[in-house]
């Protein structure tokens, strides 16, 4: 997202406003935020599971 820049982001927001209208934008933003939150939660659970598995393997090797 760092490649977009401020002007590109403003353009995207203006296009979204034109396409969806001002009444739908907050609803779309909430849905996007909820989706992003679920994605982060899922990825953190996956990486946590991998870390715990690796830790168990290391403990077995040390015994």
From TrEMBL:
The chain crosses the membrane at residues 6-22. It is a single-pass membrane protein. The keyword Chloroplast does not apply. It is found in: Cell membrane. GO terms for cellular component: TAT protein transport complex. InterPro entries: TatA/B/E (IPR003369), TatA/E (IPR006312). One of its GO terms (molecular function) is protein transmembrane transporter activity. GO terms for biological process: protein transport by the Tat complex. Gene3D superfamilies: 1.20.5.3310. Keywords: Cell membrane, Membrane, Protein transport, Translocation, Transmembrane, Transmembrane helix, Transport. The keyword S-adenosyl-L-methionine does not apply. HAMAP family: TatA_E. Belongs to the TatA/E family. Part of the twin-arginine translocation (Tat) system that transports large folded proteins containing a characteristic twin-arginine motif in their signal peptide across membranes. TatA could form the protein-conducting channel of the Tat system. Forms a complex with TatC. This is Sec-independent protein translocase protein TatA. The lineage of its organism: Bacteria, Bacillati, Bacillota, Bacilli, Bacillales. The gene is tatA.
């Amino acid at each position: 997202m760092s490649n977009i820049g401020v002007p590109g982001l403003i353009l995207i927001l203006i296009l979204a406003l034109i396409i969806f209208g001002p009444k739908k934008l907050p609803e779309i933003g909430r849905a996007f935020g909820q989706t992003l939150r679920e994605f982060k939660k899922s990825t953190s659970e996956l990486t946590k599971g991998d870390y715990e598995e690796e830790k168990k393997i290391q403990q077995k090797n040390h015994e």
